[in-house]
């Protein structure tokens, strides 16, 4: 694994027998992503929606890799119902809960690699990370989504939601969860997302 400070993740993981977990967050709204579709010449396909309802969902995901192990996808979904004062993204405690669950599931130390989102670099998050001796945090270089395989997960899910009209935020959450569960059962697909970044788990040459 190479590219700036990301290379350090492989060294730390090898020393600790740890999993390397790439973290990222994505959001989905009731307005579906546009996608090409088939239609009769001169008749543009139209999907009728009520326009009622509000809210969105946030998804935090971890693509977890370790030499000799199948690639794993772990995630958490939060439903936001547009209530007054409601937070529209994951808080530090939400990320800590996700990492705690990943640690229990993987039964090994974790090296988490994520971007410079304000929640990731806050003092509260640093304190939460420091209180976990099994956790090591590495920041991705600025503006480097191409180095994060979890971005491939979001892109794959987004394509599957093209032109999809839902009746409400709960149905949207159920559909996104279904798409993510399908990906969980395809470790080769998850590995391809890592390959697409150009990163590798192979040992560095001497």
The parts where pLDDT drops under 50 for at least 5 residues are none
Radius of gyration: 19 Å
Number of strands: 5
Q: Please tally the helical runs, counting DSSP H or I stretches of 4 or more residues.
A: 7
Can you say what the CATH homologous superfamily is? Ribonuclease H-like superfamily/Ribonuclease H
Query: Globular, elongated, flat, extended or rod-shaped: what is the shape?
Result: globular
| % residues in beta strands | 15-25%
CATH class assignment: Alpha Beta
Order of helices and strands: HEEEHEHHEHHH
Helix fraction by DSSP (H/I, runs of at least 4)? 25-40%
What oligomeric assembly is this protein in? single chain
Widest sheet: strand ordering:
3-2-1-4-5
Derived from helix and strand composition plus strand pairing, the structural class reads alpha/beta
Largest sheet: 5 strands, mixed
Give the end-to-end Cα distance, rounded to a whole number of Å. Answer: 14 Å
User: What's the CATH architecture?
Assistant: 2-Layer Sandwich
Would you give the CATH topology?
A: Nucleotidyltransferase, domain 5
Count of structural domains:
1
The average pLDDT value, as a whole number, equals 87
């Amino acid at each position: 694994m190479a590219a700036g400070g990301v290379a350090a993740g492989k060294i730390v993981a090898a020393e600790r027998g740890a999993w390397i977990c790439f973290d990222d967050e994505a959001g989905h709204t009731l307005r579906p992503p546009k996608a090409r579709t088939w239609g009769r010449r001169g008749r543009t396909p139209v999907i009728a929606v009520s326009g009622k309802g509000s809210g969105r969902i946030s998804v935090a995901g971890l693509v977890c890799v370790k030499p000799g192990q199948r690639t794993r996808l772990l995630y958490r979904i939060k439903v936001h119902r547009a209530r007054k004062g409601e937070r529209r993204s994951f808080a530090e405690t939400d990320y800590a809960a996700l990492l705690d669950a990943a640690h229990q599931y993987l039964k090994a130390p974790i090296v988490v690699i994520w971007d410079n989102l304000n929640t990731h670099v806050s003092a509260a998050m640093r304190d939460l990370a420091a209180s976990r001796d099994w956790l090591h945090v590495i920041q991705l270089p600025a503006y480097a989504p191409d180095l994060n395989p979890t971005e491939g997960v979001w892109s794959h899910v987004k394509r599957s939601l093209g032109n999809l009209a839902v009746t409400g935020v709960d149905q949207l959450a159920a559909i996104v969860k279904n798409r993510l569960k399908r990906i969980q059962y395809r470790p080769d697909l998850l590995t391809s997302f890592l390959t697409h970044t150009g990163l590798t788990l192979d040992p560095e040459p001497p």
